[in-house]
Each structure stands twice: as structure tokens, then as C-alpha cells.
Fold this sequence. Notes:
Elements: H1 7-17, H2 26-42, E1 47-52, E2 57-58, E3 66-67, H3 74-85, E4 89-95, E5 117-119, E6 129-131, H4 136-151, E7 155-160, H5 163-176, E8 184-188, E9 195-196, E10 240-241, H6 246-253, E11 259-266, H7 272-283, E12 287-292, E13 299-303, E14 310-314, H8 354-357, H9 363-369, H10 374-393
Parallel strand pairs: 1-4, 1-8, 4-7, 8-11, 11-12
Antiparallel strand pairs: 2-3, 5-6, 9-10, 12-13, 13-14
This protein binds ligand PAZ.
Amino acid sequence: MPSSLPDSSAEEESNYFNNYPPPKALKNHEALTRAFIERHVESNRRVVLVTSGGTTVPLENQTVRFVDNFSAGTRGATSAEYFLEAGYAVIFLHRQFSLLPYSRHYSHSTNCFLDFMDERPSPSDHGPIVVRSEYQDEMREVLRKYRYAKQNNLLLLLPFTTVTEYLFELRALANLMRPLGANALFYLAAAVSDFFIPRDRMAEHKIQSSEVPVIDGDVYTGLHEDEPHSGSKKLVVDLDPVPKFLHRLVYGWAPEKSMIVSFKLETDPSILVYKARTSLQRYSHHLVIGNLLSTRKWEVVFVTPDPPGERWIRVPKSKRSKSISGVEDQVGLAESKPLVDSGDEVTQLQLGDTRAASGGVGGAAQARKGIEIESIIIPELVKMHSEMIEKANRPRS
Ligand code: PAZ
């Protein structure tokens, strides 16, 4: 690892951040994080920053429209639960209104909380609202875990919306995490936009789709080509690449000796491992977890600098959850050496963890729904992090 950053990267950082006002919530988030970290430094607890969900790219300063992506925050919210199970305190930096640890079991349209409830019959027609009997055990378990995390201040929820807010938050949180040293882990699962509109090219007001009388010669109508005959305007959006700040995180913002894990998402199986490896080489952090959009719930690849370099983690066929968007036929396609699929034998990483095998958080009910791949990923990361901490604490000979 180079010990310092090239000047150009510091310049890129100040060019970017000086161009935007800090997010309104940042000061409050910093205060909450400072207190959270102080508490956990004192008890020598490991702290993981989990980033989760997609970022928006506003098209207007007073934002009506924005570019977004598919991420619902499932990976981040699920992983946070398994980190808590493993004894970590979790800073959950998430896209506002995306899935949250624990409440994810009862939110959004697929798991609408109302479907879990019932009204107990009563002569007064005002019977108490109760959890339906078939969900009692599952919900009790989730509720207990949620309350334990809350009561013991183990989970800090911090929302963001835009890509700029995300970057401001990431920088501030990483700096605040410095006292944690090797006990800090970064788990960057958010789907951060690669493109954005720089502030100096962004429209102030809602971009108009039809002609508006020009008042004081000052109405912005977006970047558009010649007006078609319909009277509606064509909008051409011109996006710049978002500066890559992972190297700033690795060499500047994050605590020395902390562990940094990033994710790489692709749709083309033939480039996934290559892209993950390139990212690892470029930023010299510790691990890139590669996943395909179509198989992300059932397989991921760990790409590390040390041998074996590429290690696949798969949920056995019989234990895979059903996924509407997933394509099971694509499992194995991104692996450099061809996969011999023999049913349950495909799990290259054995399910050594009994909690994982029984479905982890959510227990028996979760096992019925299939194993969550995060129940295999997180224990593996915890092992890697333990080794790094042990190495960091070893006296120099
Ligand atoms: O939020 P989700 O569970 O639907 O998806 C998770 C994911 C695919 C966004 C995540 O695993 C990931 O790969 N994040 C990084 C994406 C990237 O910037 O390449």
C-alpha cells in the first residue's frame, strides 16, 4: 500500500466538497456518531459502518426529478442483522425509506405489516389488534433482537438521499471512526451512482417540457435539442462521472488498520471477476465482494489480494430463497473456472455456522424461506476481521 495520496486526489476531494453545502442533517449525524463511537471504544467493541441502498442524482436543485437505481437495501439491512448477531455495533448509513434491519421483515409490499395482524373479536367492536398466531414466534424473535440492539445502543440509523449527501456522510463518519483503529470495519454495500450532474450545470427549477414565457430572460429549460413539432421538448441529460473516493477512504479518511470491504455489481457474468479484481488493485483495500444482479441472493465472490484470490460463496440449491428478479440458470456463470453444478454440492464455502444453517435471524421461519446468503458472508468477514485485528495487535518483533 502506498503510504500517502497523490496531491491530485486531495484536490479532487476539495473541488467536489467545496462545491456543495453540507447536508442539513450532517451536524446532528456527527454528534450522534461521536457519542456512539465513544461508547463502543470504551467497551472495546468492534464497529461496522454498513452502507445500504441506492443514491439519487437530482436533475434540478429544487428537485422534482432524479436518476435512481434498483437497490432496495436488502443486502445492507440483512447484513446489519448478522453483524449485530456477531457482536458488532452497527452504523447503518442508508438511503432514506429503504429497508432497515429487523423492520425489513415486515415492510414494503412483499411483506406488508398489515398482513401479519388481526383484530381479536369483541362484543364492543373494538377488539385489540394482535399478531396472527402463525407469526407469533417469528415476530417475537425479531422483536427481541430489535429491542436488544436498541436498548444497548448497538444500532445507529443514519439516512441519506442523494449521492452528494452519501459522500459527505461517508467522509465524516470515517473520520469520526478513527479512535476505533483496527476495530473498525467498512462494509460498503450501497449502490452509489457513478454519474451525476455537477452543481454548476444543474437547473435551479423544475425542467420544463414545453415552452414557458420567458420572464426577465431567465427561465431554464434544460439541455435540449431542437424542439420537435409536438411542442414538447426533448431532454438530453449530460452526466459527469462521480469522483471515485474509495482511495480517499482507504488512504485518508478511514482509521489506520481498519478493514475495508467494497462491493462490485455487474450484469455481465464475463466481466464480474475482472472488474472486482481491478477495483481491488486500484484502491488496495482488503476485499471486494462481487455479485451479479441476477444471482446476488444466492452467490457472491470474494476477491482478495492474497491467494486464492477468488472464492465463491453459494447458498446450496435446495436452500435458495425464491426471488422474482433472480435467474437461477445464471448461478456459476461468472466463475473463472467452470462450475460443475451437482445440486447441493455447489456450496464451495461450507455452512459451518449453525445459525446460518438454521436461517439466522428469523430462525425456523427464515429456514423455510431459504437461507440468506448474508448468513454465510458475515461470519466469513468476521473471521477475516479477527485475523486483521490480531495482526494489528501483535507486538513487533
Ligand atoms: O440492495 P440490494 O440488496 O437489492 O442490492 C445489493 C447490491 C447489489 C446493491 C450490493 O450487493 C452491491 O453490489 N453494491 C455495490 C454496487 C456497486 O456499486 O457496484
